[in-house]
Write a structure and sequence with these properties.
63% of the residues lie in helices and 10% in strands. The chain has helices at 2-12, 16-38, 40-48, 65-84, 86-113, 116-136, 139-144, 147-165, 169-189, 191-238, 240-245, 249-275, 277-302, 309-350, 411-416, 441-446, 462-466, 475-484, 488-492, 511-525, 541-555, 590-596, 599-608, and strands spanning 371-379, 388-396, 400-404, 426-431, 434-435, 448-452, 529-533, 559-563, 575-580, 583-588.
Amino acid sequence: MKEFWKKMGPYFSPYKKYIVATFGFNILTAFFNVFSFSLLLPILNILFQVNREHYELMEWGSASFSDVATNNLNFYSQQLIDEFGPASTMLLLGLVLALMTLLKTGCYFLGSATLMPIRTGIVRDIRAKMYRKIVSLPLSFFSEERKGDVLARVSTDVNEVDGSITSSLDMVIKNPIFIVVYMATLFYISWQLTLFTLIVVPILAFGIGRIGKSLKKNSLYAQSKWSEGLSQIEETLGGLRIIKAFIAEKMMVKRFEAVNNEFRRASTRVAVRQSAAHPVSEFLGTVMIVIVLWFGGTLIFSGHSPIDASIFIYYLVILYTTLQPLKDLSRAGYAIQKGMASLERIDKILDAENPIKEAGEPKDVKSLEHSIEFKDVSFAYNEDRLVLHDINLSIAKGRTIALVGQSGSGKSTLVDLIPRYHDIQEGSISIDGTDIRQLSIRSLRNLIGNVNQEAILFNDTIRNNIAFGVTDASDEDIIAAAKIANAHDFILQMEDGYDTMVGDRGCRLSGGQRQRISIARAILKNPPILILDEATSALDTESERLVQEALERLMKTRTTVAIAHRLSTIKNADEICVLHEGRIVERGTHEALIAQNGYYKKLNDMQQL
């Protein structure tokens, strides 16, 4: 439980008023329960005619509270019996018992109702915290994690926390209160009998503890298996065309069934252990009642008991009532152990370190005034192998720099360093003389617009995709951006125009249409720095022409870094840098590089062929 409160404690702090309320109502529930059961004493005395003594009314403080309360309760019972008879007195006491029960159940309901905002709020807060963490983590984190595993943690594991931990909050908060109040009552009735009872309780705790130890380990394994299954589903949806093309349906089904069957076996082990909670606690609780019944009965028969038979029956009723919160607490312990496994998996995302740190006092940058400078920049995704070596590059304002080279030469990595998707190990990158690590990340990225090879659109309207990230865009601004991007005409031809839904990742649009929407998005943002990552390489000739026209309009008056495989698209660049194995091996204009008869000339000749 210590680990539970350590991990879950911070989530409770926004709900302090609800916690106070549920504690208050549950304390009232426990006291009403004890007092309602105390009415059994005169009822039992009347029913079995156990007590024939004559009682006088005692003043409070003339003796101990217990003696005065018991005496006066018997006195008023005698008065009622003398006036109304035993049957009517029992009915009246029964009505009082019903009233006390009504108060008890009302407080019980209010205690549970005030707990619901805590339960639903904690689950909402965990999901929101995970989403905020996901969007803040660097791209490198997701290159090491499977998407399916991340989805499983956000969905399945959070649901498990809801089903296992937050659903047990009622038992975790309520039952300790009940146990404390009931145990205090038992000590008050007979401390000797209660001490004997406490000797038996560890047997109950030991039996329950033995089952619960393996639950967390098995739950962790089961959740990891379902993450594998979810990853396979995500991969299948993304690669369905290839699966069908290579007639690999049976192979994929076999792979999924293997993971699914292993998840079932692991889940069965967890469920079997969890289902053992009730029968084990029920049996051990009954054994404890039998032992206490034997011990107390022996004392009463011997004539040396500190309590009489009716009080002993009341004692047994309270003791049996104490068993239920003990059993509920044990079930909550099982559920919490199961949920803690999911919480560990969630914490792997929440506790993930973000290596892209904001400076202590970051500077805001509003525009690019002079240049972007790479000085002796080296970078590696891991310590084993450098991806970029000693890059020195100056990109003056308003100029277009093109990066060419074979796949894997480091072109995309180099442009990803400008918006600080990764941080360099050696050297510096500066904007107008200020190291980008000293700039606020938000203002730095606000300077930059991206158009990538794969146009990433969201399952929303065309209007909202163009205006993505720009909160104050008017319809006129959106239409103007679409016209510059050669997208306005085809948008008007769609069924709902700018309000047409583009589908998942823009699946309802062609490649050229998606690319022009992404260019319109960059135009609307109006960034001073533009990064083009092979923006036309996946298009047909007609789409490429339209996109290239849109890009040329976009590149005017902007500082542009363009990655290109088709050398024909970057012939007019102010400078072309040729990368090979992470180094800039040649640089110059198209004509100058052709004249050098080097690596660029070789690439150009291969494309000519």
